[in-house]
Amino acid sequence: xxxxxxxxxxxxxxxxxxxxxxxxxxxxxxxxxxxxxxxxxxxxxxxxxxxxxxxxxxxxxxxxxxxxxxxxxxxxxxxxxxxxxxxxxxxxxxxxxxxxxxxxxxxxxxxxxxxxxxxxxxxxxxxxxxxxxxxxxxxxxxxxxxxxxxxxxxxxxxxxxxxxxxxxxxxxxxxxxxxxxxxxxxxxxxxxxxxxxxxxxxxxxxxxxxxxxxxxxxxxxxxxxxxxxxxxxxxxxxxxxxxxxxxxxxxxxxxxxxxxxxxxxxxxxxxxxxxxxxxxxxxxxxxxxxxxxxxxxxxxxxxxxxxxxxxxxxxxxxxxxxxxxxxxxxxxxxxxxxxxxxxxxxxxxxxxxxxxxxxxxxxxxxxxxxxxxxxxxxxxxxxxxxxxxxxxxxxxxxxxxxxxxxxxxxxxxxxxxxxxxxxxxxxxxxxxxxxxxxxxxxxxxxxxxxxxxxxxxxxxxxxxxxxxxxxxxxxxxxxxxxxxxxxxxxxxxxxxxxxxxxxxxxxxxxxxxxxxxxxxxxxxxxxxxxxxxxx
Length: 535
Prior knowledge:
With 535 residues, this protein is of the alpha/beta class. The protein has 2 domains: 231 residues; 271 residues, Carbon-nitrogen hydrolase (Nitrilase/N-carbamoyl-D-aminoacid amidohydrolase, 4-Layer Sandwich), CATH 3.60.110. The chain contains 17 helices and 15 strands. The strands form 3 sheets. Strands 1, 2, 3, 4, 7, 8 and 15 form a 7-stranded mixed β-sheet that branches. Strands 9-10-11-12-13-14 form a 6-stranded mixed β-sheet, with helices on one face. The protein has a two-stranded antiparallel ribbon with strand order 5-6. Helix 4 runs antiparallel to helix 6, helix 7 packs antiparallel against helix 17 and helix 10 runs antiparallel to helix 11. The protein is globular and about 75 Å long.
């Protein structure tokens, strides 16, 4: 009897607590953050994204601009701190760095909540789902183009990387179109629950079904052109192996062994990861070793190369291994063709701020307690197009450059028939970082109808076809291996997105401006009892 009474008292206290407005808002934002987090690796339950934002949206109509802003800020902090847990493995990264990082990127959902709540309160029966979705993708675009603060990581469209039919929309709108659909469905569900407006929900469902039907037709179209046999090498070179001659020799032997296995299967191209070879261009013997291997295997080799290990601090000023060091170093990639001819290198264009360079110098002198001086890399100036054959060009992207759609689009638009992503996520350990990292390459493949080869030092390494399907992948992280497949490069033609870019974003921006400007007029119309509804 006492147990029953205790249970009833506990239930009463919980109900009383949930009736408290602040607790309800916090729990709603936390629930949405949890659902969005679960939509990405490691859990990777992308179907949750279709209603993950509903708990965040439901209370907005009752919130003031200040409270809605804080709600969005809390949602962003909760999601980002859970999403970026692996970043603490980076040398020198501290908790206060994470707070600054997450606080800045949380401003975007905070602004979305504040503006969306204002429109929803003024005209609840207006086509709010369209406004909410348009505003979200406009803010996503701004986040991806915010200078050295840009970071389009784990955007909502990437949660659907397994939905091949839906992904085909990206060839027209870019990934932003998929994000638009996801937010549109969430907002339509919210209106259905709060206002019993079923019209927007019906329209959203029909829209999603039509996109999937169109995607099915696209995927059934045969791919024209001669397939190319390719292999991505995952050597799993550990940081400790870089420190001894025996370890470096073992790493070279693994690269050679895995490349020979790829050649035995008929590979025409083998891809090595970022910083697979160090101390270039100082040690010519290393490039000669790669030349000899490519000639021996009759196979082209694309490799990452750098003077230093990733995230390494700079050496003492003036000299490095007995040589004068002017600090003009790059994170690069080069191609050695099957005849041993070495291409001019590609230098990474989008460097990682505070990890590979200090932004805004000399305008800002960053305090040492906040930012340690990173390895002083120099950014590249342009894309590179390596010739795999007389009619086939390939372009490399290094590390996080795959996150930036406009950079990759320029390579595809310049004639690259295949894209190659080389990365080294060694520092992040056995976490979801590398899996999250690779998601953007799926979207880049579909946007440009161009296969993407991913060689990751510690995995996973993947081969993605032009329709976004992962056709080959290594089994696990931190285990040497290779992935082999035949892919059809893009020999001719361009997608709408490759040709015209982010026109969809401009349309969304126009929608935001028009609906925002019309909100006051709608209020006047509703006062005259002529409500504008979706019925």
